[in-house]
């Protein structure tokens, strides 16, 4: 065994382990500074297919790469409601991810000491309980034998992915379990201003399943398929209600939610309706073909006849996604089941701006952002309005940026500019930020920032390591002082 960790290992020995409720992102720094960092995505789940000839048990990336039957897929999720509830499953996913990255693809891979000699940045859930924080430390230091660890939240890493990062930024993390708004000033999380909306990707997927099950086919056991369908079909209206007189030639990108509702009531079969073909896993070719394995749009916007454009202005891209040039004919009867996706396309994402529709006694996403900004010192608030960045799985919803910017403009002071942007790749933005930190020169501002927060295995062991004395934080107490978590002891 190698001796206890150093303060900072080499760039080539650095690992990022971003642990989300739906995906685990594993990043490693390249051997050469000019090379592109390697990032792999793994489903944070253990899946079991339904009874049949091809019954399988799959872990992490195996789910999408090797599964032959996604219908009725049973998922064992390590994280529920923003907390790790199944550490055995979480370790299994981590083990699989590490084995894949380090070229140990055989089933005999022993993960003990897999991170020995390496610096690790790992993300934890927002407001993780102290017991959860200790469990993270125990796994990384005692089992994986990491040399040095920084345990943090995803939002704190996001600004480092931008070389021109501003002094103040507000990160909106649209996650699987919840949506958080996180104000950051000079790289420090302002914990008093972190707000949470109890609505995330998992709830949205569940609501979409219920909607289809009530009106059409029973989709309650098809979590995986509906989650794949959601970004292909759903979008956000430009506003809740009309703010100016309607014009006949208005394009769909400018329509309000109320106008979409009226239009669908008057025109049941219009150019915005999608006909989504569900896969039939009784035919192995459906599971093998990347075009059909999760289903596909046969008619309507996004179909082969009317593919959505990815070029042009934001308005043109959104118009192409929402509506085709003409209503496609209803598909003729076939051996596949077909879902008609109509009002669901705009109703689902509207919940982010009207959570009271499903009984949540909380403000909208825009009000959540405003509350977070108002919680920081007044001298930083104007800067916050102009530096809002959205990340997370739901951040890619079409029209979300425009709608959030529109709502914030009404809440911000009239003389203060408002700017909202979606990260270039909102799903891996925290991982990219962590890799940028790990690649920074030791004598740079970023290098010193990271060095101040890393806890070595030697420091962890000297404080008691994973001692389980009731009420004693043992080795995790070193992290309490350096990580600046929500429960860190603040000077009086």
UniProtKB/TrEMBL annotation:
Residues 461-492 are annotated as: Disordered. Transmembrane segments: none annotated. Pfam families: Actin. Residues 481-492 have a biased composition (Basic and acidic residues). InterPro entries: Actin, ATPase_NBD. Belongs to the actin family. This is Actin- protein 6. It comes from Malassezia yamatoensis. The gene is ARP6.
